[in-house]
């Protein structure tokens, strides 16, 4: 049960009730489209007159469109409703240390345009490049009303200042990217770290059973990030730094991490760690990237196989920590490692069974890389302003 924050609350009014019911209608249409007004009434439990007033209002505001007319054995033939895909466009930006993905999505989270550019080392140059591409797409899709920009970053953003406060793998020092991009484009900007964006993607668009409200996403790349949704709420903490399990030490005498500490989870279980394991074996040609390790593994290379097995062992140790501490229903792994999930999963599952004393019922699965979880999640960050529960009390 949520405690009412008496320092930051909004009393419920008749307008609050209408807002909640409108969002319920939007979400029901999003889930079941195309759907008739009669079915909306059955799904929501609201009276016919209330459903009629709300749907007409949402049509007038261009959130919904009327589509084809259905069949009826008696009475009036139903007219089906669906989301108006052309109403709102959302720009999603996924910043990574080497490359940045840029996309334009519609209300259904479908990508209308997508491009990948090298990530500059200077935030000023970066803003200039983004502004150019965003304005080009706005001209290309003039029918859209643009709702904002969502940015996924490989680090943490301070909740009050909206500046980078922790992005060791990116190298930008306290960049005020939000203000810079808002000034350049005239659009509102929402920022979230990559792991939280993936958690939002899984929560809003994931292919898992209905009713999952406690899930954890582990992003595995040059570092390790963790996004947490508990009781249907994204966990950020007081400063936005909640979830930095990648920088929890699991071996005090381990290698030095980019954060300055030693033995962090990510120096044992990341892509970079796996490259190091492969090269330390010293039985063949050294590699520079995790992709090369995967290629060698696919060719039956035993050195690559041993490196991946060691990575899986440490992934399991960290995941066992999450299982014991958070007891989620679902843990989703995101990253290139999912390409060899058949190899990784049995090792991870075995380690979790051995090291998680509470043994909660948790499902561990690989994400669908084709779903573009970082980009899709960051568009969900913008979309939830309209589809999420309103902030009251």
What does this structure look like?
This protein has 12 helices and 14 strands. It is α/β, with parallel strands linked by helices. The chain folds into 3 domains: 14-83, Arc Repressor Mutant, subunit A, CATH 1.10.10.10; 88-199 and 374-387, ATPase, nucleotide binding domain (Nucleotidyltransferase, domain 5, 2-Layer Sandwich); 208-367, Nucleotidyltransferase, domain 5. The strands form 4 sheets. The protein has a 5-stranded mixed beta sheet with strand order 5-4-3-6-9, sandwiched between helices. α2 (37-44) packs across α3 (48-60).
Strands of the largest sheet, in order across it?
A: 5-4-3-6-9
Structural class: alpha/beta
Quaternary organisation: single chain
Largest sheet: 5 strands, mixed
Q: Compute the gyration radius: what is it?
A: 23 Å
| Beta strand % | 15-25%
CATH topology of the largest domain: Nucleotidyltransferase, domain 5
Q: Tally of extended strands?
A: 14
Helix fraction bin: 40-55%
- Label the CATH architecture of the largest domain: 2-Layer Sandwich
Helix count from the secondary structure assignment? 12
Distance, first to last CA: 12 Å
Average pLDDT score: 86
**Count of the separate structural domains:** 3
Element order: H for helix, E for strand: HHHEEEEEHEEEHEHEEEHHHHEHEH
CATH class of the largest domain: Alpha Beta
Broad shape: globular
What's the CATH H-level homologous superfamily of the largest domain?
ATPase, nucleotide binding domain
């Amino acid at each position: 049960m949520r405690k009412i924050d008496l320092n930051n609350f909004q009393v419920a009014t008749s307008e609050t009730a209408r807002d909640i019911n409108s969002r319920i209608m939007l979400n029901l249409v999003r889930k079941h489209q195309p759907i008739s007004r009669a079915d909306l009434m059955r799904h929501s439990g609201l009276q016919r007159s209330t459903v009629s007033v709300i749907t007409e209002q949402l049509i007038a505001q261009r959130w919904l469109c009327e589509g084809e007319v259905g069949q009826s054995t008696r009475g009036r033939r139903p007219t089906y409703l669906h989301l108006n895909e052309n109403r709102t466009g959302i720009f999603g930006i996924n910043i990574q240390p080497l490359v940045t993905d840029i996309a334009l999505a519609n209300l259904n989270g479908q990508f209308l345009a997508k491009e990948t550019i090298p990530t500059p080392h200077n935030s000023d140059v970066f803003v200039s490049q983004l502004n150019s591409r965003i304005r080009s797409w706005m001209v290309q899709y003039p029918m859209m009303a643009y709702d904002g920009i969502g940015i996924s970053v490989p680090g943490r953003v301070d909740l009050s200042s909206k500046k980078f406060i922790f992005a060791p793998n990116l190298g930008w020092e306290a960049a005020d990217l939000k203000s810079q991009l808002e000034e350049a484009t005239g659009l509102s900007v929402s920022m979230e770290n990559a792991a939280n964006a993936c958690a939002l993607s899984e929560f809003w668009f994931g292919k898992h059973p209905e009713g999952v409200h406690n899930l954890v996403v582990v992003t595995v790349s040059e570092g390790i990030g963790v996004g947490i949704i508990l009781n249907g709420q994204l966990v950020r903490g007081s400063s936005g730094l909640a979830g930095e399990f990648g920088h929890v030490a699991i071996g005090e005498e381990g290698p030095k991490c980019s954060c300055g500490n030693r033995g962090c989870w990510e120096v044992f279980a990341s892509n970079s760690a796996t490259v190091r394991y492969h090269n330390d074996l010293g039985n063949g040609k050294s590699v520079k990237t995790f992709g090369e390790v995967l290629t060698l593994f696919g060719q039956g290379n035993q050195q690559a196989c041993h490196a991946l097995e060691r990575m899986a062992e440490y992934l399991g140790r960290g995941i066992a920590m999450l299982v014991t501490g958070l007891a989620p229903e679902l843990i989703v792994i995101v990253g290139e490692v999912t390409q060899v999930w058949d190899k990784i999963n049995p090792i991870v599952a075995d380690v979790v069974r051995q090291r998680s004393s509470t043994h909660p019922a948790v499902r561990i699965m690989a994400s669908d890389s084709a779903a573009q979880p970082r980009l899709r999640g960051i568009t969900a960050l913008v979309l939830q302003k309209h589809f999420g529960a309103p902030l009251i009390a």
